[in-house]
Amino acid sequence: MNGRAVELVASLREGDWRTAADQLLQRLQNAWKTLVVGVPYFWLLIFFLAPFFIVLKISVAESIIASPPFSPLVDLTEEGIINLKLVLDNYAYLWEDQLYIDSYLNSLKISTISTLLCLLIGYPIAYAIVRSSPTAKNILLLMIILPFWTSFLLRVYAWMGLLADQGTINSFLIWLGIIDEPIRMLYAEFAVYVGIVYTYVPFMILPLYANMEKLDITLHEAAADLGARPFTTFRTVTVPMTMPGIVAGSLLVFIPATGEFVIPDLLGGGNVLMIGRVLYNEFNANHDWPVAAAVAIVLLLVLVIPMMIYQHIQSGETEG
Amino acid sequence: MAQQPDYSDRPWLDPNATPFIRVQAITKKFGPFTAVDNVDLDIYRGELFCLLGGSGCGKTTLLRILAGFETPTIGTISIDGADMTSVPPYERPVNMMFQSYALFPHMTVERNVAYGLERDGIAKAEIAAQVNDMLSMVELTPFAKRKPHQLSGGQRQRVALARALVKRPKVLLLDEPLGALDKRLREQTQYELMNIQDRLGITFVVVTHDQEEAMTLSTRIAVMDVGRFVQIGTPTEIYEFPETRFVADFIGSTNMFEGRITENGADHVRVRAEEYEADFYIDHGMSIKEGTKVWVAVRPEKVEISKTAPPFGPNQLKGVVRDVGYLGNFSTYRVQLSNTRIVAVTHPNQRRPARGEHEVDWDDEVHLSWAASSAVVLTK
Description:
Chain A has about 325 residues and is mainly alpha-helical. Chain A is built from 13 helices and 2 strands, in the order αββαααααααααααα. Chain B has 8 helices and 20 strands. The interface between A and B is medium-sized, with 17 and 24 residues.
């Protein structure tokens, strides 16, 4: 027996087996924790990162007439040399053709304005829900979630019926005699805004509601007591305290709205340029998978980089 | 009885003094529930006035009416001669220290204290100077840049106090100011509060359910029950001369003996308590009919406990010690009488017990007695 083993046996004899058992238990618990956290991570890794890398791969390929319609990333030449081919032309092409830049900018404009509109509409609604009685609260929340029980497409088609030149709203206004000719609403940016705001406002309300629910009402009283008028209290206490909800809700609206395809396609027709539609056309009509993939990758960068900057600023703030 | 009355410390006795805060016929209803029921109250400048009562007695509602968070259903409030009944909280010369402190979590200590001054549109340099003064007064200068969640409970309490005092309000309202602090910190803070109040001369209105807190802090106490004042008086008056059984019971502990008036003199009353087979003699006169049912209340510390019988007379009871609580500076005894009722007695331990044995111990037969001036007769 070497010295270590003697030591171990001695310590066990002293009755330390109990701590040994504790350590084993601790290790099992740690393994369990790793498993519980690990499985969802693994899931995300496979079903998020893997498609991302496939798209990334396609974006640096060349468009060819074949199936699938892009050149392989790695191929074996006859001499047995492994040939790695990266084509950055697709990205350069996005920069050269004004269409893509315009689409990105217009998408960002529409999603920014829609996010602000959602915030403007959603904030008072969330506030009102938080302040209502427990029974009313449940009913109101249900009403926010209720639209999700019908198909999204169906709701967009319903809006087409409402907004069309011969649609419900125009017919009604003409019948009232307020207007003589129908107002052009469908197949214009207006309809796209209506559609996006209508569709995404619940995604603004729910995180705001969750955040405001935790808001301590005595803080408002404290502000009033110290001389703050209602609006000042709102500006100096309510808004900063609900900022996490505002940010979460805005991201939930802004990100999907930027890449939105169905709403601009159905409600905007050909008149509203948004990157989602460009991507769709590139993929389906043009059959240019590499350019479509490049559009998607750039869209991701456009959305992720501002978020990372925001996160960086925020983590800096909490430390300071 | 003073010949040349000096009212400077007791303005409520001065017939010519004008009250600083006037609460007139205030009623506050929440639906069918009456939280405050037709109360009148005058508080004078510089007082440290306590609203004392159990939970749900209406004390907090009354405080919130003073702050402006609740509007009374009926009645008026005026502060320093100005009617405040419908003035919103942000225009009242009143600040409040909240029970939960209600510090703004997203602001530093400094910004919390500055908040009230900023609302008044005071110049930045002036605000900084006043905030610094206030922070050094509550000894929080090193913590100026911290956020509330980085402070201990006692420090948060001081931030709340500083924030409420920095605007030099005419009245400071304090809702259970010491409730969240541990015992040591409470005692220390109690005296700090009194010092600050004395130094700044601001009128304090304190809400508390803690009678000890009320006793040490206040110039006067209003005891509240179910939305009404039961008794208003100085701590001594409230403690020594409670007017009702509720007050006697609520403030400190009391031994209560039910009996009937047997003799009603100009300077004394005699009470026969049949249940205890005892006669009580109390040396204050009362205009009350013989035979009326009354309660004789005696504080535990006013009862003498002894193993030897005192000379024959009134105010005497006999019993057996069932429980001894040795608290160091004094001991508490629970003495069971022959009719199984328990009498509480507290006795200071002035001498160290010889050989570690207490003079009075478990199962000892003891005699209880008290002086004619020690008890009060209560009629309701």
